Amino acid sequence: MKAVAARTETTQAKARDIFGSEVKMYSHYTDLLSKSDVKAVMICLPHDLTLKASIVAVKAKKHVWIEPPFDVGNEGFDRLVQETALNDKVFHHNLELHYLPVIDRLLKVTSNKRFGKIKLVKMSLNLPATRQYPKGYVFEMGSWYIDLIEVFINAKPENIQLIPECIAKDASVRKGIVVINYHSTSKAEWYFNFNSNINQSLYLEIVGSRGEAFANLTDGVYRYRYEYDHWENDIADCSRPVYGFVGMRESLDMFVSSILGPGISCTGIDTYKNIQYILSELYQLERELMRS
User: Fold this and answer.
1) Is residue 24 a part of any domain in this protein?
2) What is the layout of strands, in order, in the sheet containing 187-196?
C-alpha cells in the first residue's frame, strides 16, 4: 500500500492507523491517480462517486478494483465500458460472493445434465435489526446478490418486481422480495430482511427440472440431489480469517493474480453490464416506494 486519497483529516488518520505512517496521503483521488508509481487502485466510494472515479482511474491506465454499486446513470456507465475496452489493465468488481468455493461447487452440480434446466434461483439474506441501514439499501446491496443470480441464470429478464413486506418510518424498505422473471421458464427470488432478530445469514437454493441444491454461503455447507436420489452433503468453505465478508480474500487473490497473470477476473466490466439493467430497474422501483 503506497498511498491513500481521503478528503478529511479524520479519515486520513484512520488510514495511517491501518496502513502505517509511511503511506502517502492525498486529499483528492485525482492527485493520487496522477502518480506514475501507483500501478493499481481500490475505489471504495459512495455509489454516486464511484462511476466518475472509475473512469478517471481507467483513463490513467491503472489496474482498478471497485467496490459496487455504480451510479445507475446509463450515459456515464456506457462511457466507462468504452474506456475499459481501450485499456489492457485489469478492471475488477468486488462481487466477492462470485468467488466463493461453494459457488464453484454448485456450478458443477447444476451444469450436470442430471440436474436438468434451472427453474428457480432463490436467495435469502438476513441482517440484524440492531444495525443502522441507509435509505436505498436494497439497491445498495443488490449488486452482490443479483450477480449470483446471473451466474446461474444467464438470460435477459422479462420483468422485475419489488414486493415490500416492511417499510420503516423513514420510508425505507426493510423487508421484502425482489422477483425476477425471465423470458424462459426460469425465475429468481431474492428475499431480504434488514430487520431480523437473528444474526446475519445468507442462503442460496437452486431448483432444477430434475434436481435441487441448497447452500449456506456463510460457512460453505451445501447439499444437493439429482432426481429422486438421496441428498449428498459436503462443505466448501472460504478462506479464513474473513476480511469484511465471505469471499473477500478470494476476490483479492483474483485481482492480484489477474494483474500478475495468469488469472482472469470473473467480475470485470462485462459481468457488471449483465446486471446493470436489473439494478437500474431495482433502483427506480425502490425510489418509487419511498416516494409513495
Assistant:
1) no
2) 157-167, 173-182, 187-196, 118-128, 201-208, 211-216, 221-226, 232-235
In a domain, 267, yes or no: no
- Which residue segment(s) compose the domain that 228 sits in? 96-245
Please report whether residue 198 resides in a domain.
yes
Q: For residue 172, what is the domain's CATH number?
A: 3.30.360.10
The per-residue DSSP string of 105-129 comes to HHHHHHHSGGG-SEEEEEEEEEEET
Has this prediction a pTM greater than 0.85?
yes
**Helix, strand, coil percentages in the chain from 3-state DSSP, rounded to 5:** 40, 30, 35
Portion of the chain with pLDDT greater than 90, in percent = 69
Measured distance CA(37)–CA(35) in Å, rounded: 6
Tens-digit pLDDT profile for residues 7-51:
999 999 999 999 999 999 999 999 999 999 999 999 998 878 899
217 domain residue, yes or no:
yes
> Cell triple for residue 263?
488469472
Q: Percentage of the chain surpassing pLDDT 70? A: 99
**What's the domain count of the chain?**
1
In this prediction, residue 224 has a pLDDT band, given cuts at 50, 70 and 90, of very high
